Amino acid sequence: MEHEFSYTSKEINDKLSSIINETLGDIDVNNAFDKTIGKPKVTGIAGDVIEQSVLGYPANSDQKPDIIVDGKNVEVKTTGVKYSTKALKKKKQTVADFEAKEPMSVTAVSPEKIVNETFDDSNFWHKLENILFFYYHYDSPTTVKSWEYKDFKVVGAEFHEFSNADKERLKQDWEKVRDFIIDAQKNYSDPTTRYPLLGSLRKELLLIDTAPKYPNPPRFRLKRSTVTSIIQEYFGKKFEKLPQIDSFSDIDKVLHNATQKYRGLTVEELLKRLNIKYTLNTSGDVNKNVAEKIMLKLFGSNANKLNKIDIFQKANLTLKSIVQTKKQTRTEDTKLFPIDFDEIGLDPDFEESQFYTYFSEKQFIFVIFEEPDSDAKLLKNKFLGFKRVSFDDHFIDNYVHKAWTHTKDLVLNDGLVEEIVISKKTGRPIINKAGTPRTKLNFIKSSENPIFVRGSGKDSKHKPLQVNGIDMYAQWIWIKGSTINEMLNNLDYI
User: Fold this and answer.
1) In angstroms, what is the C-alpha Rg of the chain?
2) Cα angle at 210 between 207 and 214, to 5 degrees?
3) How far apart are CA 102 and CA 111, in angstroms?
4) H helices of 235-366, where?
5) In CATH, which superfamily holds the domain spanning 6-234?
6) 342 CB-contact burial (10 Å; exposed 0-12 / middle 13-18 / buried 19+)
7) How confident is the model at residue 173 (pLDDT cuts 50, 70, 90)?
8) Distance CA 140, CA 210 (A)
């Protein structure tokens, strides 16, 4: 039977060219936005507009392909692009600054079906093999209500085909999930008791994840970082491809070999051994980015930043350097990301939140050095090796969820309180450099939770945010340095 919605590529391209730089509201000739009236959290409204008013078919959740183009099954995905937090600090942004608004749902993880599938025959790959992407500019630094999407413009569209390398990476990820489910069904009388542990695969999944947690029906998702790389390549950004690096195990092998070969060398000795040119700063030392230079050299890269390497961008890997004492102590807290209070105001589910997405996707590679003494220059620190850190379900379900719940409850229940900080010595208010009294908010603190909230701004007079009627700095999520140190001490070197 012929598919009801069949097109030629010329017909599709004509449709695409007619909507670029048009707003979703102007495109919406079938009035999809009508259902958002009085409903701030309608999901998928942008996709509904594209499907109904551009391609002419109703929204559906069928397993069959959305459309046929030149005889090929094609899945349609509409996704938001936005400027990164870093880009918004610049005077002018370009399309090269775009990143994905969120992860991309692909299809259900069906334990009954997946155990009998191969990758090439899987519903997962059938959904990804031929994709028509529509990109709209989510032109807001914070979360907006569903009816406000009408002002967002369509900024691009493409038929996307995954490279052979990315297909292999997707295959390896998918097979890890399938094999986990096969093991659960084969070795446990009640395999459903194992399904909630799918999150334990997180550390090894390169391009995808699964969410939400069982017993809620989990779905395969492309990581937000994976979607970001697709978007950035479409808008012209070039990434360096590393040959034979297709999995975390490949990355770990390179780092393991480096640790075996160079452990115990000082930074100065390591730079000379790797033939890395460096200059000294005004303190007669190298800058902290020396760790990144070392990492790039180990992988034989010509890039000047790790995020310009294809696989590191897609896997959402961030490099951090740690200088430990001989007793393996480290106490510096780390700032992670700014809180989107508008998203919180819409009261999303935790697993759809900014908090969950960050901690479920983010991985860190720590390059660890040891200082001979507290006054030593970085050049004289000793290289110890690498450790890779991801956040497991226990950490996310307890500490991240606690920070999320605490923050959400304060905001939604109008519970925020601002207090003037009183000096314990003088009994009088502490005055900032700008001449204003120092204040504190009752967000969750580092003494209460490893994941906590702390404001960050230029000075005490610059408070650009207003939440519950209180002017404040941008509020960031932080992780305690002692928590990082504990995680690292519990891990072996790669």
Assistant:
1) 25
2) 170
3) 25
4) 248-262, 267-273, 290-298, 310-314, 341-345, 354-361
5) DNA mismatch repair MutH/Restriction endonuclease, type II (3.40.600.10)
6) middle
7) very high
8) 27
CB 472 within 8 A of CB 479: no
pLDDT (0 to 100) of residue 65 = 62
Q: How far is Cα 274 from Cα 271, in angstroms, rounded to an integer? A: 5
DSSP-derived pairing of the beta strands 334-338 and 439-441:
unpaired
pLDDT value at residue 60: 58
Place of tokens 């491809």: 241
Residues 6+ apart with CB under 8 A from 97: 83, 84, 87, 90
Say if residue 61's pLDDT is above 60: no
User: What's the pLDDT score for residue 243?
Assistant: 85
Instruction: Please list the residues that pair with 295 across neighbouring strands.
Output: none
Q: Which residues of 203-220 are buried (b: 16+ CB within 10 A; e: fewer)?
A: eebbbbbbbebbeeebbb
pTM of the model: 0.89
Contact (Cβ atoms closer than 8 angstroms) between residue 364 and residue 386:
no
Reported as a pLDDT band with limits 50, 70 and 90, residue 1 is: very low
Beta bridge partners of 370: 324, 382
**Chain centroid, CA 36 distance in Å:** 28
